[in-house]
Amino acid sequence: MKNKMSAPKGGARKGKGFLRDPFFVEDSKKRRKIDSDVIRSDDSDDDYGLAGKHGVREEEEAELVEETADEKRQRVARAYLDKVRGIAAKAEEDEEELEGEREDEREGERDSRVSRILQQEQLEDAGRVCRAIASRVQTPESSDEFRVLVKHRKSVTAVVLSEDDHKGFSASKDGTILHWDVDSGKHEKYQWPSEEVLRSHGARDTQGRATRHSRHVLALAVSSDGKYLASGGLDRHIHLWDTRTRKHIQAFPGHKGPVSCLTFRQGTSELFSGSFDRTVKIWNAEDRSYITTLFGHQSEILTIDCLRKERVLTVGRDRIMQLYKVPEESRLVFRAPASSLECGCFISNDEFFSGSDDGSVELWNMLRKKPAYIVKNAHALLAANNNIEQKDSGKIPNGHIENGDHSSGSYHCQSAHSWVSSVAVCRSSDLAASGAGNGCVRLWAVESETKGIRTLFDLPLVGFVNSLAFAKSGQFLVAGVGQEPRLGRWGNIQSAQNGIAIHSLKLS
Fold this sequence. Notes:
Layout: H1 2-19, H2 22-25, H3 29-43, H4 50-65, H5 69-94, H6 103-125, E1 147-151, E2 156-161, E3 167-172, E4 177-181, E5 187-189, H7 195-200, E6 217-222, E7 228-233, E8 238-242, E9 247-252, E10 259-264, E11 270-275, E12 280-284, E13 289-294, E14 301-306, E15 311-316, E16 320-325, E17 330-335, E18 341-346, E19 351-356, E20 361-365, E21 373-375, H8 382-392, E22 422-425, E23 431-435, E24 440-447, E25 452-460, E26 464-470, E27 476-482, E28 499-504
Antiparallel strand pairs: 1-28, 2-3, 3-4, 4-5, 6-7, 7-8, 8-9, 10-11, 11-12, 12-13, 14-15, 15-16, 16-17, 18-19, 19-20, 20-21, 22-23, 23-24, 24-25, 26-27, 27-28
Helix pairs in contact: 5-6
InterPro entries: Rrp9-like (IPR039241), WD40/YVTN_repeat-like_dom_sf (IPR015943), WD40_PAC1 (IPR020472), WD40_repeat_CS (IPR019775), WD40_repeat_dom_sf (IPR036322), WD40_rpt (IPR001680)
Family: Belongs to the WD repeat RRP9 family.
GO molecular function, one term: U3 snoRNA binding
């Protein structure tokens, strides 16, 4: 019992000694001096107060790091809403009829205008509304023509524009990728990293005819936020670039054939790739990850397109255009009645626009398996145009004359000039364009009510038009031109200049 009682007494003595420690019981002179020094260092503005400033900076950085994804989305939404409110306020100031109204009525009108702007933009982004731009395009004057903005050493294979239409990206058969300004034409080149860096970013040694040294680029795509640029080509990899630093950040292997086409889903970092291996693969650029593979084509996939919905439109050499509904894990098959389809793109969620190697352009509807409207001989050769002009008093050929004999025995490279090699549609509008190697780019008006398309104007341009891109506003059209077609060398136009050409469009 004595031993048992001695332990608590010792503990009590030890505890009392702990409590009697002046550092914990009362503010000693030494501790008061330390606290005062810390306060002075935090309050001072001289060089000795840097520790306090760094502490405040670290706290601010910690607050930024602690921001969640939901908080970031709310912050971005508030900033965008303030921007729209500013646009609505400016429009309100320009209207003279609001001068005599009361302040509360003005606020109500401003809120309703903001609501209309947001709703209109949401419908346009979703592909559920069509802007009437084709009827506003004015007839080009004789002085209006394509001007060369950027030059490439070899034929341009792909051209894309950023979401704000201020920046553009182009790729060429020589393997170069350029980042250029739309207004000034100043451009910067993307530098390919070394083999060691590529392997560290996920690249693998390719097999077959393509080697890991191949830099032949066939496709480009830029994300909606402008952060990522994706490129693909003969090395069978999808390369991901940071547009702010122009640095290579990731290589996606997986395709067994050349990567022929790329597209980002609008408003997301979801990337779709099409290849000569007849498959479509889905990637996530933000997570640097592979998602899944889509099958269905029986031949090489040539072009791919996607809007905001998880629906992917692909065109292949098997005379088939397919619409993949990713969430439903289903697909719709559209069969071309003529030769091989060369290119295609969305007009809206339910309508598509395509071009064929027999020189025709087609308008498709999701409710029909065949084209709703076909314009044959859309890009007739110049010689054929001259003959037709003599007979029809300058009228544009409308499909009654074919582009020569397309039988297997007489098919020659001369007919490649009239292949419709590229098409484009101004987003959420009725304005479309098609390009070939016959010396012009043709503008079209899509008439959804009559389920037809009609010719607007021909814009002269020498060379194979391998890629087209409209500005979102519809104020200009960009074309990637080359002396050779994008996917081969079955034609050559020596007078053409390899590069990026831009044509302004005047809207009424």
